[in-house]
Amino acid sequence: MKFSINRASFVKELNNVSRAISSKTTIPILTGLKIVAAENGLTLTGSNADISIETLIHTDDADNQLDIEDTGAIVLPARFFSEIVKRLPTDTMTLNVVDGFQTEITSGTASFTINGLDANNYPHLPEIDTTDSITLSGDVFKEIIRQTVIAVSTQESRPILTGVHFILDGDQFMAVATDSHRLSQRKVALPAPTSETYDVIIPGKSLTELSKMIGEDNPDVEMRLSENQVLFLLGDLSFYSRLLEGNYPDTSRLIPKDGDTTVDFNAPELLAAIERASLLSHESRNNVVKLTLKPSDGAVTIFGNSPDVGNVEEELESQNLTGNDLEISFNPDYMKDALRSFGQTEIKVSFTSALRPFTLVPTEDTENFIQLITPVRTF
C-alpha cells in the first residue's frame, strides 16, 4: 500500500475519526486507526466499541492531492501516528507499507517508520440495513443535542438515564433527557413522516461527540436506526453509535400541566442574575439559591447565601407575574444550564408549589421546548 496526500486534508479527517479512538480499551487493535486505500479514495476508521467513525477522502477531489500508487490496508497506532502527521515539515506526506506491516511516513526530509497491525483483524463496523432514514438540517440537529444533552445523568448507577430518549412517530420527533433532578424535552416536526415508529435511547456522550462534528459543511444530518445501533451520515462521514438497552421512564407524567404562579423573564438577564447569586452559593455546602415571588407586590427577588462568606440579594426584572406568593430554592447550576439552552429569548416560568418541579418554556413556542427543574428542600 502506498499513497501521497495533502497533509491538511488528511489531518482534518484524521481529527474527526480520532474522536472515536480511545487508549483505554479492552480490544488492543481499537487503539489503532484503520486506513484502507482503494481506487476511489482513502477510508479512515476509528472505533472504541461504543462509537465508530468512518470517513472517505476522495481521489477525484483536487484539494486532497491524493495519489494512490498501491491499494491495501493497515492499522496504525493512532496516538503516535497522529502526533507524527501533525508535526511533519511539508504540505504533503507519503505513506508506504514497506515490509509486512512496517509503515514508512515521509514528508520533505523527515522520515518515520512505525509498526502497524493486520487490518483483517480489525472488527467490522455494524451493518444497518434499514431503508428508512430521517434527515434534519445540521443546525436543527445540533440545537436538539445542545438543548437536551445537558440533562442526561452522569451516574452509571442508572445507565438508561445517561442517554437521550428519541421518539419518532409519523412526522413528530421528540428528544427528552432527565437525570431525575431535571428534565429537558424538545419536539420537532419532521420534513417527511417516517414509515415506522422508533423509540430509542442514544448515549449522551455519543451525541456530544456527534455535535462537535456537525459544521457549516454539513447542511443536513441523515439518521438511520437499527435494533441496537444508530448511524448518522454527514456527507462522506459515517458516525455509528450503540443504543442503550432498556425502557426509558415515562417522563410525560413528570411535567405539570399548569402552574399556580407564572412569571416571564428575559433569559439572558435571568441567567446573569443567577450567575451573580451563585458566586456565593458555590462556597456553601448545599449550593442553593432562593427565589421569592410576590404577585401581590409585583416583586421577584433572588437570594444567594454562604454562611462563611456572606449573602447576596437582587430584585429581578420580570413581566406578567401572576398567581400565589411563593418561596422556592433550587440548584443554580441546573438553572444556568437550562437558561443557556434558550439563548436570546423571553421565557415563561411556571411554579406549582415550593416542593414541586417547575418548568421553563419559551414564550413564543410553549409546546415544543420545555426545561423542568426539581427544587431543593431547605427545611
Automatic annotation (TrEMBL):
Q: Where in the cell is it found?
A: Cytoplasm
A GO BP annotation = DNA strand elongation involved in DNA replication
Which InterPro entries does the UniProt record give? DNA_clamp_sf, DNA_polIII_beta, DNA_polIII_beta_C, DNA_polIII_beta_cen, DNA_polIII_beta_N
Q: What is its main location?
A: cytoplasm
Q: Which Gene3D superfamilies match?
A: 3.70.10.10, DNA Polymerase III, subunit A, domain 2
Can you give the residue ranges of the DNA polymerase III beta sliding clamp C-terminal domain?
Answer: 253-376
Tell me where in this chain the DNA polymerase III beta sliding clamp central domain is found: 136-250
Pfam families linked to this entry: DNA_pol3_beta, DNA_pol3_beta_2, DNA_pol3_beta_3
Domain called DNA polymerase III beta sliding clamp N-terminal: residue spans: 1-126
SMART domains linked: POL3Bc
Kindly give the CDD domains that the UniProt entry links to this protein.
Answer: beta_clamp (cd00140)
Q: Which UniProt keywords apply?
A: Cytoplasm, DNA replication, DNA-binding, DNA-directed DNA polymerase, Nucleotidyltransferase, Transferase
Gene Ontology molecular function: any one: DNA binding
Gene Ontology CC: cytoplasm; DNA polymerase III complex
- Subunit structure and binding partners: Forms a ring-shaped head-to-tail homodimer around DNA.
Q: What is its biological role?
A: Confers DNA tethering and processivity to DNA polymerases and other proteins. Acts as a clamp, forming a ring around DNA (a reaction catalyzed by the clamp-loading complex) which diffuses in an ATP-independent manner freely and bidirectionally along dsDNA. Initially characterized for its ability to contact the catalytic subunit of DNA polymerase III (Pol III), a complex, multichain enzyme responsible for most of the replicative synthesis in bacteria; Pol III exhibits 3'-5' exonuclease proofreading activity.
**Its family?**
Belongs to the beta sliding clamp family.
Task: List the protein's name.
Answer: Beta sliding clamp
Identify the species of origin.
Levilactobacillus bambusae
